[in-house]
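Why does this matter for the project? Reviewers at the last site visit asked to see concrete outputs rather than summary tables. In response, this paragraph embeds two records directly. Each consists of the residue sequence and, immediately after it, the corresponding structure tokens. Nothing has been edited or filtered.
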Amino acid sequence: MMIQGCAGKKMNECLFPRAEDSYVGDVMALSTEKGVYLNYLYETDNNGVGYHPIHQFYTRNFVSFEDKGQVLAYSEEMEAPDLAVGTGSFIIDDAGTYHCFYTGHNGYYEEYGLDKECLMHATSKDNKTYTKDTENIIHAPEGYSTEDFRDPQVLRTDDGYMMLVGARKENGNESAIICYRSDDLKNWKFEGDLYTNKDLYFMECPDLFKMGNHYYLTFSWNNVVYYRMSDSINGPWETPKIDTFDGNGFYAAKTCEYKGKRYLIGFLDRKKRESDRLPYTWAGNLLVYELKELEDGTLGVAMPEEYINYFDKQIFEAESVKDESELGNVPESCRLTFELEMENEGKSEIIFNNAEKNEEYRITIDNGEDKITYDAYPNEQSMSLKAGVKYQVDVVVEKDITVVYVNGEKALSNRIYSAVGADWKVRLQGASINNLKIYGRKGIL
């Protein structure tokens, strides 16, 4: 199957893949020594009664991808608990068997006496075709909603396996990430709440991992990815001052470790009617960040290091910019890089002017507001930005996707349709830029 917007032969070279005529939903990565299998909910604009089979990309470097197609189908029986498939996770046991734990969802559940959501299990010997175990289904424990019970994430621990599940308590207006334990991936014991939250209706796609001396818990809600931190795998969980990584277009992200690095992998939504002025709607293109543990123990997101060699031809250079610099019509696949220093109340704007569409939008890094913002349909990411500090900024562009990475700390991803074919410029106020360069790709400029 062709990967939309990519080029290549056996492996399709691109940074933000999606299969042709479809979109990437929640991603469930499975890392191996040879590569990463990026399983995801397959979304189209013509879903039927059943929907969201799990499809799979494969990559060895996050800059080229192979489409492996479908690995798990939704049921075609109206009374089946997985008439629709929801998020889960993949893991390999010690015998080499692949396990998929996933959400079974049935919107017609009342007609058939089912729970609306439950946890299901499938296995495979080849990671190509999975066999469902419909005899062993996990239902919501007593006291938790059967309508909001989903997204199992299975992890190895020192003494077996741990499963995190997004849940909602029937009393108390409280969302929860609950925990199960198992020795064999078959028999699961409910152990109660790992973390609860009264501010968010639900915490989707939970994940848990250790970096350095801390444990980190990630989850998503309402188009935002959040995290918490602790000294123990069991909590208590501390909320950092800025508890997000990106704005409100990057969603449903979970992590995997590959070749000694940990990556945060989700999707960048598409826009309704492909209009920059409209809000995001669910599913889009796969988006990968490299996770960094910062000096204070909080987490940062960075441009994957592999992108540096991917863009292998310098096409523009400005040693310094004080006020404004015209960048011209940049390639549809490129990387801008520069060093930014701001005064108090300083800001840097990247402006896209599309004369054909009569549209002009901007991404702003502003230390007066301590934010990275985009102004077509408001999108922002908070970040502590100090005067007199030099920040490394990278901007990666691939067609209508633009991602700004600031100093390996925060990012802002956007789908900007009018940026394609636009004239770009940078404008500064109380700020300066050094070593501004643009890199494209040899042979496709």
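We now turn to the second protein, recorded in exactly the same manner.
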Amino acid sequence: GADAAVQVLDADFNVLAINRMAQREYERLWNRTLNPGDNLLRLFEDRPDIRDAMRRPWSRALSGEAFVEVQIVGRDTDDPPAFEFRFSPLRSSDGAVIGAYVLAYDVTERLRDQARLLQA
């Protein structure tokens, strides 16, 4: 029931958890199915551009950095959406980074509204 697409990966880019909203976005934007146990990078072996674009932010989070970025994704579609990604490292009880997670929010309409305000 979250209003965010949620994914959790281990240090090897294996999916530990993913909510239905995130799964729908993978299907909609890239016609790919991503489930727990899948490897995110292997999912896009045939698309190194997408694979590398995904590896960059996840690697930052897996190195221990928490950050927010806005990106347009799914440029292969007619009307690519924009998402705000909130990446965070996932830590063990002793503080070691054991994975990372992201909360992704569709901000397409917000950015369009801001652009319309600037034009006005």
